[in-house]
Amino acid sequence: MDDFSRDTENFVCWLKTTAEIEVSPKIEIKDLCCDNQGRAVVATQKIKKDETLFKIPRSSVLSVTTSQLIKDYPSLKDKFLNETGSWEGLIICILYEMEVLQERSRWAPYFKVWNKPSDMNALIFWDDNELQLLKPSLVLERIGKKEAKEMHERIIKSIKQIGGEFSRVATSFEFDNFAYIASIILSYSFDLEMQDSSINENEEEETSEEELENERYLKSMIPLADMLNADTSKCNANLTYDSNCLKMVALRDIEKNEQVYNIYGEHPNSELLRRYGYVEWDGSKYDFGEVLLENIVEALKETFETNTEFLDRCIDILRNNANIQELLEGEEIVLDSYDCYNNGELLPQLILLVQILTILCQIPGLCKLDIKAMEKQVERIVKKCLQLIEGARATTNCNATWKRCIMKRLADYPIKKCVSIEKPSKGNSLTREELRDVMARRVLKSEIDSLQVCEETIDKNYKVIPDEKLLTNILKRKLTEEEKSSVKRPCVKK
Questions:
Q1: Is residue 443 within 8 Å of residue 286, measured between CB atoms?
Q2: Interval 315-347: pLDDT, tens
């Protein structure tokens, strides 16, 4: 028996004895490493909807309230809950269990079935050359290595303050070790509601959502529950909570030999790779691409032969004008980037921005006005465009400009490299380099597909009207022949 199988067997024994977790005989843990999935939970018999797959006592959940560290240093509990936070606290608790207690830790068999550092594929583990494979995805801006290093330093200070046997760990706790534990928590933890929450309904009304979450929930490692792989389209089980235990319950009938799937949240492939180190080969239900503000600016410059200075002035007014903010009810429409979802959904704010800027580029003499007069005109145009978009209408040139925006963003992608991406065949175990390359291409394809779908969003969801009609309404006069000719611009061709 190899180490992988032995660790699995010991873990299963631990589940039933030490952890006292009730496991249905209709499921088992399987080795799917040959399919690049590691361990997985698979049905050995048909499972009916609402059937309990396993039941976990709260005492077997690993958190800052159950760790041996808290038992050895009781004063830390209040500090972790109210100052350090359950996230950083859990990292410290796990480190204590793994490095100080080692085999004496109650959770030692559990730690051995965690992915090894060499198997971790979350983006924080990728080197610079590997990250280049993900260009131009904006996921590269969300890796958070700087913030991770700051947390690492804080944790070292906390460990030193605890002192005792634990203090020696601080000297050898390298960033790679921290990244490993932090990624395990990010990938596999659950937010478990605290049982001693004392928040009443009146307090809820005066407390922010973020504060409520921090007070009510603990980052927690839940044995066996975290062994389920996740899929946004195949999810067939869900973790439920009651006062004494947690239950994994079937959401639908699960056939024999079918894998049991949970869901990690409504994440696109880019975020699944960043956080958890995997992708959904058929694409995530929540995939999106992103159009940049600079794509919009460049598209407008090309379509209307306007200059950057004029567009920058318009954008500054849209950002900072108090009357416009009131019209928009405080909704920000000028962002660095905009999500374009794989179902063709776009934020109305994005279409509104493109519509406003498209009209601004067509107002005769607008660029020659002083700032006060220009602001007044922009206010009127925002009001008219807002009415237009709220009525599910957009102008011809807005539609053409939007298509050009998409084309400009797609031009950043290595489309030919990503078009033919295929799921690795069953039984084809890839090297780390091969796996990361193909996952990067899958992420880029998800974004490309989403952008391509969104190219037709205005055509499908808005009534497209001539720009002249809106301009006549704004100017309160008919356009001159010269102005008409400048308005009638050809649509962008694919």
A1: no
A2: 999 999 999 999 999 899 999 999 999 999 999
